[in-house]
What does this fold into?
Amino acid sequence: MVKRKFVSTRTLQPGMKIDQAIMDKTGRELIAKGAYLDDFQIEYLQKKSIGGIYVAEGEPDPDELHSMEANLPAYTKELIEKSRVEDKSKVTLSSEVIKRVGEGVQFLYENVESENFLEVTNNVTGELIKAIESNHAVAVDINLIKVSDEYTFKHSVDVATMSLIIGKAFGLNEEELREISIAGLLHDLGKSNIPLEVLNKPGKLDDDEFALMKQHSLFGFKILKEKGMFSDNILKGVLQHHEKMNGKGYPLGVDGNAICRLARVISVADIYDALVTERPYKKGFPKRDALEMIFGMSTELDNRAISSFMNSVIIYPVDSYVQLSNGEMAKVVENNPGYPMRPIVIGFKTGKKYDLLSDLDCASMVIE
It folds into this structure.
């Protein structure tokens, strides 16, 4: 709920959202209503001896946003309708599927010696693939990725889900997609060999603890190899998911030429999910920041896998409401393939169509 509050100019802080327009004596607008104040604007208000201004606190709730859209001029509503392009088919997992897959993964990680290990693996993998294939999903809304509050199992299913979708864009064949689903679900299986006091340590690991943690992919590889039930692709996907294209990964330090296709894809999904997930010892990065960090890892990650990831994820689904850095509320009408942070939106105040990717006038504009 957005509330209007009167604040003395002496206590204004950068980033506050102004809830009134500031005009000069000729009626020219100097600061637009809805703008986020910066140091320069605050200094201007103080120099002009303006005692205080109204600022907006809080975020609009869905009812406010729907009401705002309902009261738009007819030409703006028509522009939204004409410009709207459906997103690519996205992953949808029912609560029942989420529960069964989550429980299956938990069983696998807690019962690595079970005689039913392969059967449960195939059942869980089949359930996940069937759920994704049922709606021909080729994209994933990263706002909806969540399986449980238990990090290890949630993370494993997140990584498997994203790896399967990214793998389609990467060009993996049908058998490789099945294998990457298994490898994604089991990529952290080796953590079952890490003492809980190290695995769940709330603070930073010391050098010895970190060296042990870096062995988890090797532990997982050995567990699966000894079972004699899994393909070389699956084994390498688990073993190499922390290797880097520049040879600076672990546990073996091999470079791009030796890293299998499955591991290249899993690595991107694994790093992204780890970045956005909050842990006892760190806060999660905002999704937009995590995407930018992935985009900037071109020397460490496979560039084709990065591109496939960017073409597969949706952060601002069509029909979602966003706030632009100019203070204007807007509605997403189309996503630009490969650039999930730069969709096409229609502004509510101006009725303008902003293509955040292609319009030069929008080069400095971002979604807040």
Observations:
- The mean pLDDT is 90.
- DSSP finds 14 helices and eleven strands in the chain.
- Residues 95-314 form a domain with the Hypothetical protein af1432 fold (CATH 1.10.3210.10).
